[in-house]
Specification:
Elements (H helix, E strand, L loop, with lengths): L5 E6 L10 H12 L5 E6 L11 E6 L4 H11 L2 H11 L3 E5 L1 H4 L4 E3 L5 E3 L6 E4 L8 E10 L7 E10 L2 E4 L6 E5 L9 E2 L1 E3 L2 E4 L5 H4 L1 H12 L14 H15 L5
Helix pairs in contact: 1-6
Length: 256
């Protein structure tokens, strides 16, 4: 891997860590280190600038409550949001989960009717649930066209718990829901993807249970420095057992 060093920029780490989303940071860090890739984790808080390095960067954005999202929306309305959009346009790797995902759209409307402006990475918006609509809670099994090869279909598992309904415009969904609710519980979509930016409602944490996706994010970041890099395979027996356990339980079908 030469001198490539990975920097994981954990956006609002102290505020947006609902349902253990920090586990996504740990998963990427460990899977890089197991391959001999040095890793720095940089927490980026309110009022702090996003500063990409001269090596490989990966940006993670976790979930939070409405109060935290209101504070973040204000913080993202200036240069930080513009910097994040520029990073995505330049092919930078970004993962937003739940509240972080919602703020990657045009706006997030609170239950009180306030529209919190988002970064605008994805052509989408999120509305509050109606008075007769329940929260969307439970384990999810979804089918993804693998980013590295659109002809390959993979499955991911995770846990969702959100009241907001996300409506996609021209944004490409990350996945199609097999079991669960996804973006809004009605159109069968889950998350969004654009270039190397990914958004999802799946906690769980997402990446420890879906090692192929963790590796794809890692590879995308490394290839911005050296496009010929390949990742050495790891023994994923524990990770795949976790995936199979959840997927089998959710789908009700046995998995060998």
């Amino acid at each position: 891997m030469g001198q490539i060093r990975l920097t994981i920029h954990h956006l609002y780490a102290g505020m947006m860590n609902l349902y253990g989303d920090r586990g996504n940071v740990i998963a990427i860090k460990k899977r890089a280190e197991w391959r001999g890739i040095p890793v720095d984790v940089l927490d980026v808080g309110l009022g702090e600038n996003i500063r990409p390095t001269s090596s490989a960067d990966l940006f993670l954005f976790g979930g939070g409550q409405d109060r935290e999202q209101a504070l973040l929306a204000s913080d993202l309305s200036g240069t930080k949001g513009a910097d994040l959009r520029a990073i995505v346009e330049d092919g930078g790797v970004v993962l937003g989960v739940c509240g972080g995902y919602q703020l990657m759209g045009h706006y997030y409307e609170t239950p009180e009717g306030e529209k919190l402006p988002g970064v605008g990475v994805f052509d989408m918006h999120t509305r509050p649930r109606g008075g007769d609509e329940a929260r969307l809670i439970g384990n999810v099994l979804a089918r993804v066209r693998a980013p590295e090869d659109g002809d390959v279909v993979r499955e991911i598992v995770g846990f969702e718990n959100h009241g907001g309904r996300t409506e996609l415009g021209e944004a490409e969904p990350l996945a199609g829901v097999l079991v669960g609710y996804g973006n809004n519980g009605s159109d069968g979509t889950e998350g969004a993807r654009r270039l190397n930016a990914y958004g999802t409602y799946l906690h769980g944490s997402l990446l420890p249970k879906n090692p192929w996706l963790t590796d794809q994010l890692l590879l995308n970041a490394l290839r911005r420095v050296d496009e010929k890099i390949e990742l050495e395979p790891l023994d994923d027996a524990a990770e795949l057992a976790a995936f199979s356990s959840v997927a089998g339980r959710v789908s009700g079908r046995a998995r060998g």
